[in-house]
């Protein structure tokens, strides 16, 4: 008996697949795209997880000793055990020079070399890195010509810089500390390492130490092992003699011994921190992808099954058992999902490679190990294959559970106009949760606000999907009469068809709501913050000129030289860095990296006006003071005279005294430091810009005077009109940020648009019987085609309006909580969204209708 039931189910599945191949083709496209997208994100995340900074500078070292670049914070969440979070430091944490002697005395160590670096440039503007000649062994440099430098006036150039340039004994102009100095080339060095180490200039060790500007501290220690000593043995031997801490006053950084591929971590100190940021963003986007994919799979499969509800009810009425129907539907969905999984798995690899290429613009290359492509393809395909069968069986549950007599009536009954009670309750709950989450976002800041806003958007989209039929009735009540007036007979037919099938209408505009809401949130978040930040920065700017020093920046002396130029009334150097703030968000411990500016109080009022609300910025001097933004001061409950606990960019613990509170924190950052407080805790103490206020009389040329004052600092120094971007704390959009925008908006938005096309195509294919009937009763082809156009317009307009409203809730919460302004989306961006949605809706509705023209819109009517 059971075998006969299985045969019957298999027979029904085969016949149904053949009969409904067009509908299943639309399902395969949508679910296959979902599989490809999930697999592509698995591909990129897997590549990021195994990524490590390349070993270039320390290719000749067997081990590198460096300070730990991570900081930790432990706190007790509400009703839970204490929890520890970690974050990477944005600036290099250094070692005390006394650690060098301990490392040199360890067993198995042939040589221990102190390594420091200084950014510099040549006379023609080529960037390079300055190092000490003893550290040349760490990159396997050897003299090809000449000899090693003997005093502070001599240097060795690597062959990349010397190509076509000065030979040993000749002179070279270098800018290592901002000013141009002439050195004698004593030799040319060539490395046997085939990597991409940056061009180097080698000084004597005392000269390099003076240029580095942090005597008593070193960046790292390179270790060369004695012959026959293994990396593990070297690690253990060096680790045994190291102090527990780095030895730098004010720092509690531990000391690490890096061997093998880990040595690259000492070269690119913030590469792993950037990787963590990318992983967090991709994880957040990936969670959205998973939710979108689940929604699309459930929507398309449910629609495909729902369009056959009459057929399933008829089968149930003529004696098919619930088990046979569920098994048949499960077999159909299983075969369809297998095809979709195969196509999606194949597509996941090229899509993942394309996404990876967008992210490999920084210093961290993304590897592709042999196991990653099949694992990513399997992840996307397997997830789709596992989800499709239960979703399809659940969608048919209301029909398969009917008694045969009831099923006979259901086979000819109209579509229910209202969603079930459970669906309605779930939709209301999710709508309330989304609005509540948006409300919570207005009371939070940082990651908590962003997470709450994202959660609000997704909750509201799912609520729209659940409450779609009810929303459809409201939309028809508003748009039905204009549709009839504009469309005449076709408008009447479009309005009546939509009124009779509100569930179908809801299914049609739900993916459009998803596209509009998601893309609007992604595209508006950045411009909202940039606009508010730019407005505050412009309002704070009092300078009319700005000087920049190219890639290497300008030293502190540049601002002093500018102040003495004729016509200059004030000049302020701006040093950029970051601090780490330990705090709690929703009870959870959080480490937040915040960009900050280091400025000089002298003449600050002439170049910047942070809009002080309490205290005095003239007291922003020394190494123990700070000014705090108003919102941050309120959240920390501090004011002038209080102290605030922070970690500087290199991990040094400080508790500076608050001397002022200011309002323009969105433009200038949440903390302003004296430049001297940051200079010793950054990787390179160079001002990114010098702000200049001039007050010369008529006919004077202060810009020319400034250029003359800065002439000793090199030809790459530029002087131009100042803008708010020169002081805005938000940096220009980086390549990594652009990549995330492309991935978040382009890839996922494209997938959602594909879902729009496949869903509408599936609905149109399922209406062939309805179209035939309309043709049989006398409806003309043009009337029918116009009806489809009007229905497409109705679906598109309703989806755009509802999607915009859904996006407005979290965006408003986000903008109010973080920027204190209304959300902003450039009109051109919204126009592109609306145009893309309209094209997708037209493709999903009109093309399938035209493709079936022989039987639907053509002359053959049945």
TrEMBL record:
Recorded protein name is FtsX-like permease family protein
User: Which compartments is it annotated to reside in?
Assistant: Cell membrane
Which Pfam families is this protein grouped with? FtsX (PF02687)
Provide this UniProt record's keywords sorted from A to Z: Cell membrane, Membrane, Transmembrane, Transmembrane helix, Transport
InterPro entries in UniProt:
ABC-4/HrtB_transporter (IPR051125), ABC3_permease_C (IPR003838)
Grouped into one coarse class, the protein's main location is membrane
| Domain of life per record | Bacteria
Transferase among keywords: no
Q: How does it sit in the membrane?
A: Multi-pass membrane protein
Q: Where are the transmembrane segments?
A: 23-50, 279-298, 336-358, 370-388, 424-442, 448-467, 505-524, 739-766, 787-816, 828-851
Q: List each copy of the ABC3 transporter permease C-terminal domain by range.
A: 285-399, 747-848
